[in-house]
Structures are given as structure tokens and as C-alpha cells.
Amino acid sequence: MGEILRETVSALEKEESSEEAQAQLDIWKYIFGFVEPAVVKCAIELGIAEAIENNGGPMTLSEISSTLGCDPSLLNRIMRFLTHRNIFKAIPTSTSTSHGYSYAQTPLSRRLMRNDKQSMAALILLESSPVMLAPWHNLSACVSVNSDFPFENTHAQDLWQYTAANPDHSNLFNDAMACHANLTVSAIIEDYSEAFRGINSLVDVGGGNGTAMSIVVKACSWIRAINFDLQHVIAEAPEIERVQHVAGDMFVQVPKADAAFIMAVLHDWRDEECIQILKKCREAIPKENGRVIIAELVIEEEGNHDKLKDIRLTFDMVMMAHTNFGKERTLKEWDHVIKMAGFSTYTVKSIKNTVNFIIMAFP
């Protein structure tokens, strides 16, 4: 018995020692965690990925620095950092007089191009902007008994008031939402096209500049789409064939259609507002064969080790920093708001290669 106890104590001591060593390494990523997104933002602003893409193949450091007008020694340090993280690929090159590297694109670096079909550049630029970074410094005030709202406490307005009053930020925000819509809606159509079957008209509630509906009508030629958002958003929306832009307030009335589509909107609001929005969506669709297509995150219950769970939990922290009452919801919490909004039944499906789920609610 004594030998077993000694072995158990020894195993625990080794485990604790290993955890201490790992902790000493891990703490540095929390000290300097801001560095990665800052350097990635730098790469986007410099246009490094576009330069390599436009070249049609790998480029040397001197070629990139010449093309972009950058200091070669500083750019070398940036590229060393980014290639170490596999954002770009470093290919050893040598001549009779020197040794060095050429730099090539990767699937990840292409997502830093502003106009690539899988671009995430606009989202990165939004979330790394001074406006969106500043509220994080007030996160503890949000959690304290004072219950301050980080964004409102920082900017004296909530996110929506600030966006409406500041056109530059509004454009940045809408570009980021279009970036998200481009990736997510394309994935929904590829993985769950039946969500759009049997409907002739579709209203996108909070649809921004209409990117989501432009993708839907292109893939589903039988659908007539309505892009519905606030006046200052619709005023900047481009003309899109078979998409009608309508300005209004989703808390007051939603335009009539066979189905409503609402993506990355409900997580901005507390349950009471979500229920109100969903009720307006339900009123806008027919009782027979109508549906509300909700594209949102679902936080998995404890014990679920989905590889995307960490990203979804991060989104929840973003909601805490940038909205007054927004949050990502568990399936139990979604069940509550959907039923309280008067829907009789709903289905839930995860969408491949995205963090999103589709919740289909029926009157």
C-alpha cells in the first residue's frame, strides 16, 4: 500500500511540474497576445498578400520591398514573424553570391487579401480598429457590480448609435459584415441549400449592404430578395439585380415574404429584444409553409469538444465588449427565445467549415 501511495505522489508531482513548465510558456501569449493581430493588420495595410498574388508566384524580400516601397530590414522582420506562423511560406533560394528566401502565398495569407473570395481582411481591420479595441480596456467594469457597458462607457454611445453617427466606422462595419456574409452564406448554400427550397421571396433582416441576398439570388434564381436594414445602411447599399433594398426598423415591422433570413443579428441583443425581433419576423411570413432562417452560433454544452468551440466562446466575449446585452447562446437559451416568440417548432443544423448553425423556426 505504501509503495502505491509513493508512486501516486510521484506521478502527481511530475504532473504538477509539467503543468508549471507549460504555464511558464503559456503566460507569454497572454502578455503579448495583441502582437499577432497587430502584425497581421500591418500585412493587410501594406498589401503584402496582394503583391505576391499579383506577381503570379513567389517574391524575394527585395522584390516585395521594392513593390510596396517598404524598408527591407523592417519588412524582413515582419516576414520572419509571419512565416514562423505559417501565414506566408518561406522558400529557401540561393545564388552564387547570396542565400535568402522567396515568399509564397498560403491559404491563410490569401484570406488577408481585401478582394479575395475568402477574404477576412475587413473583419480583421474592424476588430483591430481603435474604436473596437478601446472597449476591451473597460471589460472588468462590465463584470463588476456597476455593470457598465464597455463600448458605451468608452464612446458615450452604444455601438449602433456610434456607427450611425460616424460614416467611416459605418462603412468599415458594413464591409466586415459583408465579408462575414460572403463566407457564411456561400457555406450555407453549399451545405444546406434545402433551407431555401419552396420559397419565392426572402427578406434579410439586418442585411447590411445586401451581400447575403446577392449570393442567395445568384444561387437560387427563383427567389426575389429584400434586403432590410436601417436607413443609413440602406443609403450606402449598391444596386443588386433581383434584390430590393428597404429601409426600416426590425423592432417595428419586417417586410412581408415567404421566409425571413436573419444572420449575426440576434446575438447583439438580450432575450427580450430577440423575442421582439423574432415576433416581427413571424408576423412577416405566412402561417402555412413560412419559416425564419436564423444563422447564428450555438454554444455547445460542457463536455462537447467541437474544434470550433473555442472560437464560439471568443465570439461571446466580443459580444460582451461591444454590445450592451448581446451574447452567444446555448441551445437551451435558443429554445427559450424561439418558443417565447411563438414558433411551434424548429430544427438545428451545423454548417460545415463555419462557426455558424442554421436554426429553422416554423410558425
From TrEMBL:
Domain O-methyltransferase C-terminal: 136-344
Protein name in the entry: O-methyltransferase domain-containing protein
Positions in coiled-coil regions: none
Similarity section: Belongs to the class I-like SAM-binding methyltransferase superfamily. Cation-independent O-methyltransferase family.
Cross-referenced InterPro entries: COMT-like, COMT_C, COMT_dimerisation, SAM-dependent_MTases_sf, WH-like_DNA-bd_sf, WH_DNA-bd_sf
Active-site residues, record numbering mapped to chain: 267
Keyword S-adenosyl-L-methionine appears in the UniProt entry: yes
Annotated ranges, domain O-methyltransferase dimerisation: 28-114
GO molecular function per UniProt: O-methyltransferase activity; protein dimerization activity; S-adenosylmethionine-dependent methyltransferase activity
Pfam family, one: Dimerisation
Signal peptide residues on this chain, from the entry's feature table: none
Organism: Lupinus angustifolius
